[in-house]
Amino acid sequence: MKILAIETSADETAAAITEGRKVLSNVISSQIETHAKWGGIYPSLAKRAHEEKIEPVIQNTIKKLGVRSEKLGNTIDYIAVTQGPGLAIALEVGIKKAKELAKKYNKKLIAVNHLEGHIYSCFVQNSKGNPKHEFTFPYLSFVISGGHTEIVLFKDHCNYEVIGETLDDAAGEALDKAAKMLGLGYPGGPVIERLAGEVDNKDFYHFPRPMLKSNDLNFSFSGLKTSFFYFLKKMNEKEKIKDLKQLGSSYQEAVFDTIIQKADKAIQQTSVNQLTVGGGVSANLYLRKKFRSLAKKFRGSILFPSFKYLTGDNAAMIGVVANYKAQKKQFVKDIEQLDRIPRLTL
Ligand code: KG4
Ligand code: ZN
Question: 280 CB less than 6 Å from ligand 1?
Fold first, then answer.
């Protein structure tokens, strides 16, 4: 069963052709440079960039498969698209294109939740079918990105229970905002990772770890951001620049330590010790190390996306989710009625 998948929920215009868990063809066009000067995603620019890129990205994906566009109808079985959560005007572009193609090739549509994509990203295989690990439910799945910080009990295919989430900023967003305050540009996560690595990821300042005393599994990063802001306000530019690595490292540690302590609590509360970690921030090697030690502490296992492109937004993960939805016959009933859901939950 081959699926053409489309993803336009934030700042990547992406398409992929998948078969089961295998990615046969994948194209991602990033808008990072467009948004860098704004320090975050600028919605109307995102919409325009998606509109410009969507057709070439899809054509490239088809070409990479070695199929002529006119013959696509004979090759694929379904079309999948991200319905939400995400930026409304960005989601719209992908959905409109998916509807067009579904009509043109007379294919059923599958609407996918972007968060499901990040969860399944840990199970996506390359075209040769690697890595081979099978599903052994249940998993405790973490989605840690610029838009989300979620702890999800992944019970079975397409069956989830959100047991913890952020009440305000997402972890990636918290890193991006701190990087902006330090004048490090966007996206901030990778820059802070590099700076922190240069001082062995040490915690120099011990910034607050929000919500650790609460018994629930929710996060809140806006207080940490505010305390960082006031901390920086007391420093002059020279001190800030001199201390850049120490500041970045300590801030990153506050974010990651909070995540790991909540993860520890989640394992204890659910008795599930098989972990998966996806989303943009899961590219961070130091965070991976922390998660690996946690899994070891509980004699559990851990999976991350196997290829770097699968940590960020991509359509391959959307196609793989769609494969399981198709098996359950979860198709869009009325194509005309399909609409974006910017605040879609699991
Ligand atoms: O999943 P993603 O590409 O988009 C969303 O769905 O949000 O995640 C983007 C986020 C940004 O906040 C970015 O700073 C963060 O992922 N990120 C990282 C790293 N690479 C990307 N954070 C920490 N370390 C990294 N290496
Ligand atoms: Zn994402």
Answer: yes
